[in-house]
Amino acid sequence: MIVRRRAVTAVWAVAAVLLAGGCSADGGGPPGFGSTPPAGTAGTAPGASASARSREPVPPAKGSVKVLRTVTEGLKTPWGLAALPGGGLLVSSRDEGTITRIDEKTGHRTESGTVSGVSPAGEGGLLGIALSPDYASDHMIYACFTSASDNRVVRMLYDERKPAGEQLGAPDTVFKGIPKGFIHNGGRIAFGPDKMLYVGTGEAGRRDLAQDKKSLGGKILRLTPDGEPAPGNPFPGSPVYSYGHRNVQGLAWDDRQRLFASEFGQDTWDELNAIKPGGNYGWPDAEGRSSDPRFQNPLAQWHTDDASPSGIAYVDGVIWMAALKGERLWRIPLKGAGQAAAPQAFLTGTYGRLRTVLPAGGHKVWLLTSNTDGRGRPKKGDDRLLEAEVR
User: Fold this and answer.
1) pTM across the whole model
2) Alpha-carbon distance 216 to 9, whole Å?
3) Whose CA is closest to 65, among 356, 272, 348, 352?
4) How far apart are CA 387 and CA 70, in angstroms?
5) Which of 45, 80, 306, 380 is spaced 20 to 30 A from 110 at the CA atom?
6) Residue 18 · residue 299 · CB < 8 Å
7) What percentage of the chain's residues is helix, strand, coil (to nearest 5)?
8) Could you give the CA distance from residue 329 to residue 39 in angstroms, rounded to a whole number?
9) Dist CA 191 CA 83 (whole Å)
């Protein structure tokens, strides 16, 4: 049972090896591979004309990454990252349950407040954050966190005019009932170009949940800002957008409004997937590439020692993927027809585990390290927020 903000509603139904995305048009669903963007939004559908496709960014075959500076250091278990429209970055602390504002020019930090109800343990705690699509008028911050009973999404009023530590309003639960576990809590949230809220979830260590369309575990969910199943979802009345996932922690859209997601494998293959509405991504029956026609094959895959991916970002024709165990930043240039060129690795071992990557405008990104998460080897100054130039 899923309890939303104003109602209680039952929900139902619902090596690098490079592969073509097996996607077909579905005639006007929400943005994604094999769908048409909704009216009033930018971008072109996968079936657009050759002239429209030719305007897509063409990334260079070989890229580069240059870390320009350390913005700030001494962060405790940083996880989520969001850029404020007037300047400043918000970062969530998984274990402390706090949100902190960072001045991106000076590195000065101001604690905005503590999110009540967070119950950190293992991989759970205060995870992804995102700004409301109407942030300019409502000043709402969305957050995904692990409570004592489940994983849930809340929204809070953010008022930086108030004293430090008191700038967050009381959490308003938008959506709850996502399975929690000591591992595999997913937790990345993002608003898409359609202004709907996308939530990456894990199967909480219960493999069977990923293939169960009635479960919220091992899925990508698509919700309205109020937490209802979004219009046009592939399974009517259900928040489930795609399923068969092990642990989704990265979400990003390209210039054509196509959704990509990173996913942790178990022992063999981590994945970058091109998400098709209603698509089945195979877990636990398939890990990485499969010959089973029921499952969507990954756009790219990596051995788990080389990746263990968390956040992803799209910049000018390239997906940038932060790797935890792999301790590197992966560059995956996109090509036409749902394909990718050979991935390249950067910063290998330089900054340790990388948790989150966020576009910073132009050819720049923000990077969060994750060495204080219990699995890293923290050095003096960890964890850090970095500014990097990427090509």
Assistant:
1) 0.89
2) 14
3) 348
4) 6
5) 380
6) yes
7) 5, 40, 55
8) 35
9) 13
232: left (phi over 0), alpha (psi -120 to 50) or beta: left
Q: Which of helix, strand or coil describes residue 211?
A: helix
Tell me: the pLDDT tens digits for 60-92?
Answer: 889 999 999 999 999 999 999 999 999 999 999
What is the distance between the alpha carbons of residues 331 and 193, in angstroms, rounded to a whole number?
23
- For 255-266, write each residue's pLDDT tens digit: 999 999 999 999
Residue whose token pair is 């996502």:
178
pLDDT, tens only, 300-323: 999 999 999 999 999 999 999 999
- CA 268/CA 265 separation, integer angstroms: 6
Task: Please check whether residue 216 is in contact with residue 178, taking contact to mean a CB–CB distance below 8 angstroms.
Answer: yes
What span, in angstroms and rounded, lies between the C-alpha atoms of 31 and 159? 32
Q: In 3D, which of 85, 62, 67, 132 has the Cα closest to residue 366? A: 67
Tokens representing 246?
A: 């092990």
Structure tokens at 306: 């080389």
Structure tokens at 311: 């956040």
Q: Amino acid letter at 122?
A: G
CB 295 within 8 A of CB 282: yes
Separation CA 162–CA 156 (nearest Å): 14
Q: Which amino acid is at 221?
A: L
| Measured CA distances, 310 to 54, 180, 332 (Å) | 31, 18, 14
Q: Which residues pair with 301 in a beta bridge?
A: 17, 271
Cα–Cα distance for residue pair 98/100, rounded to 1 Å? 6
Work out the mean pLDDT of the chain and round it to a whole number: 89
Of how many residues is the chain composed? 391
